[in-house]
Write the structure tokens for this entry.
Amino acid sequence: MRSSSYSGTSPRTLRAAVVLALAVGAVTAAPAAHAGTAAPVPAAKPYMGWSSWSMQSSKYPGLNPDGDYSYLTEANVGRQTDALAAKLKKYGYEYVNIDAGWWRDNNWKPGYDQYGRQKADPKRFPSGMKAVADRIHAKGLKAGIYLPAGLEKEAYGDGGTPILDADGCTTADIVYPDLRTTNGWDSSYKLDFSRPCAQKYIDSQARSIADWGYDFLKLDGVGPGSGKSGDQYDNVADVAAWNKAIAATGRPVHLELSWSLDIGHAVDWKKYSNGWRIDTDVECYCNTLVSWENSVDDRWDDAPGWTKHAGPGGWNDLDSLDVGNGPMDGLTRAERQSYVTLWAIAKSPLYTGDDLTRLDDYGLELLTNREVIAVDQDGTPPARPVTPSDPRQVWAAKNPDGTRTVALFNLADAPAAVTADFSSLGFTGRAAVRDLWRHEDLGTYKNRITEALPAHGSRLFTVTPHGTALTATPYEAESTANTLAGNASVADCPACSGGKKVGNLYLGGRLRFNDIVVDRPGTYLVRVAYVSGDARSVDISANSGAATRHRFPSTGDWGTVETVSVPVTLKAGANTLTFDSSGPGYAPDIDRIDIPKSPR
């Protein structure tokens, strides 16, 4: 299965722990700043660093010579620490994150202390976890560590294991009497936080991590999400307990959650943590670290719905960035660049799972491009698609200084030209364009940028408008001048421009806008405001012309309106524009359309 996984019973079921990188902040505020100085913002920007998981989970020849996940050793972490300090630290990479298995031997047998807390496997980490963190800190870096949600089954013992600093509490007093399981692999018993002893156990785990000097914790298998749903797998209380326990230690520790978290609990993840995985594992669990088709390409579909949830204090985590090792990564050069481009504009943490001791020249170039890193690290909201989620896509974000960050993607399997129309960016006329990958000012463009891209290729620009704000004529979907057919109906929508929308577009349900008047014939870039809790497709046609099917990216929930721009050919005078759900599945709900004053 393609999911971040770690297993408490077998290394074969271990599936993904996103590196628990240590980020620029803590779950809760650090100790008070000196009078007159502002306290640092926790996770003010996405963290950057390295994670062990991609290499320890790969079948690439030579990485795990002593069996599955055997790469994870103190010696290997030390080598990566040295390489990170030498090659990437000056670019902002600072976390060294140790993933699943640090307390398990090569047969996956765990080790615990007398209080049921994980302790380092003496063969993997002979110096112990504190010494490893000290070595990382000596390089001016931060140390990250990993744990699964819940009480691991093996730590339960016979139920009589005492809990540290909790008089009378044992492992039997922190879980449900029926020993119900939890987390993404059912490898732990679910903690019952109605029993005070449960918080004491989390407090003891947090205390050990803080005493060892760790700056980052990846809590994995968290639900709802991680492939599971329902009360048994609801770990919101666990995350809240970790937040509280970390604060009590007095040590700033970044708390990162994994994996594929339920967006319906985004408010909880933001309240209690500094970052959350939005998707399955990026690793392919094959003879390379990743592959394009395994799940790298899934992120273009899955990231848009989470866009509004990211910002200072907590960021959407797209998983490891494995672009530095050439053949070991399993990607083309074009795919490697697109991979970094999406991570940067999505404001994902930038942590690589590559072997930093053998970065190739192109990989080093990708990971150390200061202009691209600056896009990721500027602390502003992520970009999102301004076109439908078709094979050729444009993503953009408006920056505080009025410039736009614009990415062009060709996700098709063959070369294709991709165009960013300035009207989709909110203005018309001229704009200065800078290529961020090439560090090159390209000059002034009028109305659009078009680039020929290879299969799975991309470009990344800063666009500085010198034109005028876009003017357009709005047409509300719920207008009585329109025609509804099939199941289509008007519904309330507080976030919509007119307070209403047209929904129930399924099984042939249609919305037809009537009397759309333009002065000149041509192709107009129509901006469509819509609501869609998941990605949905719709057929769009003008007048009696053929329909074009477009896939609209998720808006994240059914109370958020987003826009995309679609090209439509109109004649001079009155036109009709139809949104038809005749294809399989539901179409998005439509709020309104905006017709520009002139064609492209």
